[in-house]
Structure formats: C-alpha cells, structure tokens
Amino acid sequence: MRKIFLTTAGQLRAGWRLLTWLLIVFGMQTLIVAVARLLHLANDGAFLDPKRLMLGDWIATFIPVIIATLVMTRIERRTFSDYYIPVRGLLGKSFWVGAAWGIGAVSLLIGLIALSGGYRILGVALNEHVTHWVLMWLAAAASIGIVEEIAFRGYMLRTLGDGIGFWPAAVVLAFLFGALHYFTKPFERWEDFASTGLLALFLSLTVARTGSLAWAIGWHFGFDWGAMWLWSGRNAGEYARGRLFETAWPAGDRVTGGLLGPEASWFVFVVIAALFSSFHFMYPRKPLTLKFDPGPLASNPSQVDA
User: Which domain holds residue 144?
Assistant: First the structure.
C-alpha cells in the first residue's frame, strides 16, 4: 500500500498531489455556486462585458486555484515560484515582452484576414466614456491571462509534469484547454478546439524556455486585448461591450472565424506556426527542472533540455 501512495523517497506521488489540488479547487467552486444560488446572485448579461468576465474569473476560478495552490505549498514545502507562478515579477519585463508578442500575433492574424477580404473597419464604436472602457478592457484582458495561465499552466503543469514528464503533461493540458473551450462555449467548431489547444501548447513552450508564467500571461493578455477590444472581433458570437471599432467580416467562416472570432480562422494556424518557430529560435533551450526531491527544494533536480 505504501508504494501506491509514496515514492521510494517517501514523497507523496504526483498523481495523489494533483488529485488533492483538484478536490480543493472543485470543492470550493461547488461551494461558491451553492452560495451564489442561495443568495440569488446570477451571472447574467453579455458574455463580453469586462466586469462580468473579471468577476466570473476571479470568484469562480482564481480564488479556488490560489487557495488550493497555497495549501499545496504548505503540504509540499514549496513556494509559488516552484509552480512557475511569478509573484514578484508578474508585471516585469518578461510580461511586457510577452504582451508585445501577443498583440503582434493577433495583429498579424487580423492582417491576413483583411488581405483576404474578410475584415473592414467601419468606424469608431467608442464615442463616450473612453477612459473607462480602455481601463476596463486592459484589466479584463490581464485578468483572463492571469487566471487561465495560473489555472492551467501553474500547479497542474508542474505536478503532472513531475509524474509523467513535462511535455506529455503539456500535451494533456493543451487538449483539456481546447476541450474546455469547445464544450463550454456556444457556436464552437473544431477550429477553435484546435487553435486554443495549440496555443496552450505554445504557452507551455514559453514556460519551458523562461521558467515562469510571466511571459505567457503577458502574451495571453496582449492577444485577447487585441482580438476583442483593439481589433474588435467576435468571441462566442458577441462583440465586446465598449470595443474600439465597428467592424465588418465579409467572408466565410474559414477566413474570418465566424461567430467564434479570429482565433477560429484558418489563418490562425499560420500564426501559430510562426509563433512556435520564431520563439524557438529567439529563446534558446535550457535545462528545465522537472522533479521535486523530498526536501524543501530540489538540490539535485532531474532535468531535461527544454
């Protein structure tokens, strides 16, 4: 029985640690939903309302994930940085470089769609309360980046990687990330499943090369802000409330992404290929710590060339 739960070094196996983390997260989410129903707190309204996005992400996902991770740091005698979570350098240089790459990626995507006759700017949509909407969408995009990256490529990637290896774990979580979009959002097609999964795999590459989630969080922030607010594309069949432009998308779904927005355009796969290749050459390989020793920090970590 001891071998089922513990490694030869006496450490709780990665699968049991991950299961403990998931039980805490899902348990807290169940409690939050129950309290919301008891108090008749509905999360209605437009999907692409920045306030709704932030409240939903932070209450339903971020708080349970952070509390569960904090509990596991005590059990495993780790720090948040051991799970790639950048406590001090969250908004440092790496974040802003990632943000620039994210804005560049979505701008390239919109440019390809426009060159194919699938995108036009009809005019400015934001005529009043400009400062309010600019700040709200900067905050909402940053919130999406922080919450989704920490939830999917923080504790889960680190611990699952400890059990089955970093890249097998990255592939599993990328599939789950794509599946979450496909099965929980309206109007979904296989293109969005594939693109979000591949982008999740790309962001795992950035973690492997930088050792932190800061770059990935910045990229996620820049891409989402550019797609929904700056270039004013659709997502889940809606345009963002308070978006910058009135836009037209006069082409088929393969070109424009249709109701799902530009991340479901077939051009997104060209952009993803460019991201993988350019990041690979610009960020050199380096050893990536994959295993925890029983002590507080790994003194002789098992590593791979990332």
Answer: 2-287
